[in-house]
Amino acid sequence: MEYFERRFIAPSVETNPFGAIAQMSPLCQADGERTIAVFDWDDTLCPSSWLNAQGLLPLYRGHVVPLNSMVRQVLSALEERIFALLTKAMSYGPVFVVTAAEKGWVEAASTMYMPTISALFKKSNDIHVVSARSWFETTFGCGGDARHWKIEVLGLIASKCFGNRHGLGSFNLISVGDSLAERDACHAAVSAIPETELFAKSLTFIEYPDAQEIFQQIDLACSYFDHMCAWNNHLDLRITRDQLHALH
């Protein structure tokens, strides 16, 4: 994660990482606006570590990296899975892609590597791309780190969307990312709104995944997203490499 922040500013293992919730039948889809999902970008949706290992990250703003047919095939298959996950999340409520990279990186990367996702960002009113760092620096000035930036942004999202909802039923704030920054931000945001029955539900992916691991994690998240929404409590889930290897 730190590599991408710098570059674009310029356990005990169960086979199924979803544990008990994998055994339940998901309830009927919740009413709209009761669930907000927040996704990280680099190494969560975008296979940035894999692209870097292939020498396929841009060296500067506006640098267009040529992609061969094999890479395009991998990215095309991946964006189908990402599209399925994002559209499923959008069926429950607003979706945010919150990155620690500089403003414009998510849009540039999606245009270059996954044009279907780029089109989704442009056309849908239910998905929002936010640079946590750029927002923080514009609001408070320089300083902080990815964890600090995301705590502030998720706190703002939660307070705007879920504040003053006492007695109106339960709500979900779901966070999916590859670092503790996303996980900590989700749980901190929920704890700051005790008057609302709001459940923090975090899913932490592995760090520095290759393309195959991104595929597996996106598929898992999509398969169990309904279960996560239906679970009537907080969730703090983490996928490990051992679990991914066990799924082969």
From TrEMBL:
PANTHER family: DOMAIN OOKINETE PROTEIN, PUTATIVE-RELATED, PROTEIN KINASE
Protein name: Uncharacterized protein
Organism: Aphanomyces euteiches
